[in-house]
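Researcher: Next entry in the queue.
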Amino acid sequence: MRFVNNARDAMDLRTTPVHLGPGSRAKAVEGFTWDPEVLRAYSAAVGADGAEGRLVMIFDGEGHGDHWERHPAGDELVVCLSGSATVTRDVDGVPDRVRLGPGEATVNPAGVWHVVDTDGPTSLLAITATLGTDHRPRTGTGPSGHVDEHGPEEAP
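Model: Structure for this entry, 156 residues:
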């Protein structure tokens, strides 16, 4: 993994996310993967940015999310580019669902556990405060222990 300052060529945010840092800096993150070693290296490299650092990335997916996550350092903006998705937040043990279609967005507040389910092929853009991000496997219960019994089709 390496950071590229002033990248002049087009980049695919699906494979090359961009790190936004203090002072309005934007650096492409080449070689980024979800491998634990790469994630540790990324965290170490941007740690000085603290809560002001953000990762901008596009995710393509289909089906139910396999994990809950939360971002204690700041809010996360999720934008649906194509397809449709339901974002479920665990608010004090109660599921709070928002359905997104193309061009629609939602904000996951700092520290709130959330999971994303898609209704077929979907592309999402996320701008995430990554410092201290936590993940938990999705096991049929929410992270606070409540039963996650409703699917995305039951979202308002």
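Model: The chain has a mean pLDDT of 88.
Researcher: Noted, moving on.
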